[in-house]
Structure prediction request, 404 residues.
Amino acid sequence: MKLIKNIKKSVNNNPQIISKGKWVHLKFILGVDDKDFIFKINCGKIVSIEKRTVDTKTGLFKISASLISWKKHWLHIPPRDYHDLFAMLSKKIVKIDGNILPLMQNLQFFKDLIASNREKTS
Amino acid sequence: MSNIKFENISGKYFSLKVRKQTYRIYMEESGKGTPLLCLHTAGSDSRQFRHVLNDRQITKQFRVIAFDLPWHGKSNPPDDHKNIEYKLTTNDYIELVTSFCKSMNLKKPIIMGCSMGGRIVLHLALKFPDLFKAVIALEGADKLDPYYDLEWLNRPDVHGGEIQAAYVSSQIAPQSETKYRDEILWHYKQGGPGVFKGDLYFYWQDGNFEKKSHLINTKKCPVYLLSGEYDCSCTPEKTMETARRIKGSKYKIIPGVGHFPMSENPKLFFKYLKPILKEIIS
Prediction:
């Protein structure tokens, strides 16, 4: 999915996001509808984004929502409830699961990583 | 001659006795006239009200006062704080605010609080309607439900300041200027360990009073509610439900603003606040 693959470029070209995630070295899953994507992170940079093909390929935790919801999140000015990962969580638009300790330790990094796909202009 | 242009805010410290405890309290004030006491949000401090304190139109008619609650900002926790797990209760909070008003000899102040400050002003309207000229609840509701686990806020393997800021950044509108957003978050990054968590005990548990809020007499103490469209904590719906329960209360939802209207977008906030202040003193 091109939309998801774009995140690699937006993050790796953004020194502020990379700096926030400089202690992050792990794999996590971003769920979009019924598809899962494995993000491999090293020192805040995205090494790879791969479609999950078998259940044994996994990540430490998973953040998932519908494609429609992610698209709203990525609008230049998102509507309320879609404007932030935790705002989406408060309305149960997004689900998180797994070992979320590294997510909580680097929460702003992961929020910024996902939001980096946001449109730059309306 | 110095070219420094000082702000009109003056800050000072004093000792506040509440029950058996004495706290060193920091407060800021500006202006003359009807007292307007401002209460900060959970986990932050009175710096959130700097735009109100610096607005000449407001300070021409109002003596604006904002103080840091004990444990917050430049106010001290109690001397034996290292042996105490901080947990703000409704009664503690009411006593702190009423003791502050008594110490300052404030006569019928208007009291305006944001978030947990917006909750306590509703309690004060219920319990002490004669003490206050009116209450303004910013992002205030009589009941809220938690949407995350408070245990993440104070543990050795998660940076308290960073997670607090990351949590509350979800409550700021995307339209708010970056400099204001970052200032709000900076205050959260500076909070003492466990303080935000202790405040949220009041905000999400002890302070809920949706079964009693209908008893507020708005003829004695007028109630105004202002909430931001993008607040995912005290949502517009929660504010509207509260307003429905408090007969005679007035509410407005501010578009394009989140949980911190006075610090997120002061210019827009004033468009909503100033008519309320005018109505109260007219």
The mean pLDDT of chain A is 96. The CA atoms of residues 52 and 106 of chain A lie 23 Å apart. Chain A is about 35% helix and 25% strand. Chain A touches chain B at residues 77-78, 80-81, 83-87, 89-91, 101, 104-105, 107-108, 111 (CB under 8 Å).
